[in-house]
Write a structure and sequence with these properties.
This protein has one domain. 87% of the residues lie in helices and 0% in strands. The chain has nine helices and no strands. Helix 2 packs parallel to helix 6 and helix 8 runs antiparallel to helix 9. The relative contact order is 0.18.
């Protein structure tokens, strides 16, 4: 929380450069886009394979599109995309900052009277919070389309029936909540991984250890946040 507060102060202090945020956005989300979309495509295809024949046998094939759309938007897309970005970009953030710490680059920044937390954390945190929801939105679309093609190929479900069901089941609330999840997950990835990197002391061995810990902790925090968000919006 202290590091998050330092980042907020850094933003409102007018020290943040848009170019730096843009560079981090490309490194965090744009470079993670292919793997995120592949995961979304495959996960939706697997779900469609699992449920299509069972729905057909019970005469409920018209509900396939809605079921896949709701599952993708509410849980699969935001969760899997965040895990993919955390594994690829989050560990890179931790390793980069940890390397700066053990090579005394952070100390050099301090001698210039620059807040290292604000300088290193803020562009990454802001870029992640803004762009992860964008990736999630694209992943949701890809996942729904993937389910449509698989359903069409496995049980010959007409695309119009699939999409009609999907549109009927999708609520604006679900999309907003999925984007909120993505924003929170993105913030957690950047904050946790940057913090673990910043706390690194020692040498190359400790850099590797911090990177591993960052991946584990960011995953745990995302799962806990996912549970709490679902509890807040779908149960309470």
């Amino acid at each position: 929380m202290i590091n998050l507060w330092e980042c907020i102060k850094y933003i409102f202090g007018g020290n943040l450069k848009f170019k730096t945020v843009l560079t981090q956005a490309a490194a965090i989300s744009y470079d993670s886009l292919p793997i995120s979309l592949v995961i979304s495509f495959i996960s939706s295809a697997v779900i469609a394979i699992q449920v299509s024949k069972e729905f057909l046998m019970t005469g409920a094939e018209s509900y396939i599109g809605g079921s896949i759309a709701v599952v993708m938007i509410r849980e699969i897309a935001p969760g899997f995309v965040a895990l993919a970005i955390g594994a690829r970009a989050g560990t890179a953030i931790s390793a980069e900052i940890a390397n700066m710490q053990v090579t005394s680059q952070v100390d050099a920044i301090k001698t210039l009277k620059i807040n290292p937390v604000g300088y290193y954390f803020t562009p990454r945190l802001l870029a992640s919070a803004i762009t992860v929801p964008m990736v999630v939105l694209i992943a949701e679309f890809i996942g729904i389309i993937s389910g449509m093609f698989v359903s069409m190929g496995t049980i010959d479900l007409h695309p119009a029936r699939y999409m009609t069901s999907a549109w009927a089941w999708i609520e604006t609330k679900d999309i907003y909540i999925s984007l909120l999840k993505a924003c929170i997950f993105g913030t957690l990835i950047a904050l946790v991984c940057a913090t673990k990197g910043y706390e690194t002391r020692g040498g190359a061995k400790e850099v590797g250890y911090s990177t591993t810990q960052a991946a584990i902790l960011s995953t745990i925090y995302m799962l806990v946040a996912d549970f709490l968000i679902n509890l807040l919006f779908y149960i309470a």
